[in-house]
Design brief:
alpha/beta, Dihydrodipicolinate Reductase, domain 2, binds L-homoserine, Alpha-Beta Plaits, Rossmann fold, HDH, oxidoreductase, Asp/hSer_DH_NAD-bd, 38% helix, six-stranded parallel β-sheet, threonine biosynthesis
Length: 430
């Protein structure tokens, strides 16, 4: 039997431990497929009794200086599971420069410095794989890079943040508050170290940057996207949407319009008969529309040690196979095109508006005038009693452009004293 492929682990928290458990459980199968075994020899951690116990269990050496991994010439692959930008970026860069392959789950880093790191990997003829960075346990990136190689993708819609999906599910099913559900998601370990990234849509946006690259070959930056989270979402609007036949979900969308793309994150009304509406709790799903396959959806856990660890081990196996074949150095997603963003007047959608207005005659006419002048038709209108003398009005429009949508908001503010409660995109019926 050939020598084992030696691996260094940076960080041994929930995900790092998941990797070790998966490797231990599947060592025989992996060796059978690759012809060599995969062994984590060293883990870089902060000193603790718990880490010492894990080191003994998985037969590895703990190191407290990262150089002991970066300068170990026997280590061929480095796994980074520390998260956030620094020092992960410095450690990954140093590993690539030292000729080591890198596997990471770090979406923040790939979405913001991916181009630089991918170039660094290519310069050093090594692999940089990051299947676990998007939707944890769902094997979506390799699927897009390989199984869709001969297909033309037009749309990628994702529920790619488990925390917010968990919150929205519990708020509706158990009538619980925003804060209460966020506290539970944090306690269960789904939320980021800074949950602002979850609730404000940042975490989902990082994942959409990566998905856009794999689906369309285009590298979009965070500041080129509209990013809205679920903070301040009214429980009443979620309930009204439910009565109208929709589930409110935080959706990341990347859509190809002609030869340009539009990528964004925000709360969306999803028709209850759409497969994405059935995705509950902390689960993730990525829905793809393409000319060859048609519609397909990839569903599974978006976080957690074992699921995320499984994606990391799949990357390890792929690298090990390439080491054996002498084919290392290709990017994870070789598809590359110049970025072209869709102009706002070509982005067409139906919208949900929720407003509060005085409950007396003539008020609704003001609203109808604004919409009519902008050629925006009503598809559904509903009115309920609001606070005091107020009426709560909800409108779903026929499809309008993003430019018209912005103008409607502008005109409501200029020409009325109505209180703007919320507006959201409405996904088309299946
Ligand atoms: N905070 C993330 C989520 C973890 O809730 O989906 C996985 O990236």
């Amino acid at each position: 039997m050939a020598e084992p492929i030696k691996i260094g682990l940076l960080g041994m928290g929930v995900v790092g431990t998941g990797v070790l458990e998966n490797l231990a459980e599947n060592q025989e199968k992996l060796t059978n497929q690759i012809g060599r075994s995969l062994t984590v020899t060293k883990a870089f951690v902060r000193p603790s009794k718990e880490k010492e116990r894990l080191a003994e269990k998985f037969d590895l050496t703990l190191v407290y200086e990262v150089e002991e991994i970066l300068q170990d010439s026997e280590i061929a692959i480095v796994i980074e599971t520390m998260g956030t930008i620094e020092p992960a970026k410095a450690y990954i860069s140093a590993s690539l420069k030292a000729g080591k392959h890198v596997v990471t789950a770090n979406k923040d880093l790939l979405a913001t410095h991916g181009t630089e790191l991918i170039e660094l990997a290519a310069e050093n003829q090594v692999n940089l794989y990051y299947e676990a960075s998007v939707a944890g346990g769902i094997p979506i990136l390799r699927t897009l890079a390989t199984s869709f190689a001969g297909d033309n993708i037009s749309k990628v819609l994702g529920i790619v943040n488990g925390t917010t999906n968990f919150m929205l599910t519990k708020m509706v099913q158990e009538q619980r508050t925003y804060q209460d559900t966020l506290d539970e998601a944090t306690a269960l370990g789904f939320a980021e170290s800074d949950p602002t990234n979850d609730v404000d849509g940042i975490d989902a946006a990082y994942k959409m940057v990566i998905l856009s690259k794999f689906a369309f070959g285009m590298t979009i930056t965070m500041d080129q996207m509209t990013i809205r989270g679920i903070r301040g979402l009214s429980a009443e609007d979620v309930a009204v949407a439910g009565k109208l036949g929709y589930a409110v979900k935080l959706i990341g969308s990347a859509i190809k319009i002609n030869d340009s793309i539009h990528t964004e994150v925000g709360p969306v009304l999803v028709p209850k008969n759409h497969p994405l509406a059935a995705v509950q709790n902390e689960y993730n799903a990525v829905f793809v529309e393409s000319s060859g396959i048609g519609e397909s959806m990839y569903y599974g856990p978006g976080a957690g040690g074992r699921p995320t660890g499984t994606s990391i081990v799949a990357d390890l196996a792929a690298i090990a196979q390439e080491i054996e074949n002498g084919t290392t150095g290709r990017p994870f997603s070789p598809y590359q095109q110049e970025l072209k963003l869709t102009p706002k007047d070509q982005i067409i959608n139906s919208y949900f508006f929720s407003l509060e207005m005085p409950d007396h005659s003539g008020q609704f006419l003001k609203l109808a005038e604004i919409f009519t002048k902008l050629d925006a038709g009503f598809e559904q209108v509903s009115q309920a009693k609001g606070d005091g003398e107020k009426a709560r009005v909800v409108i779903i429009t026929h499809p309008i452009s993003e430019t018209t949508y912005a103008e409607i908001q502008n005109q409501i503010q200029l020409k009325t004293k109505f209180k703007f409660i919320s507006s959201m995109k409405v996904m088309e019926e299946k």
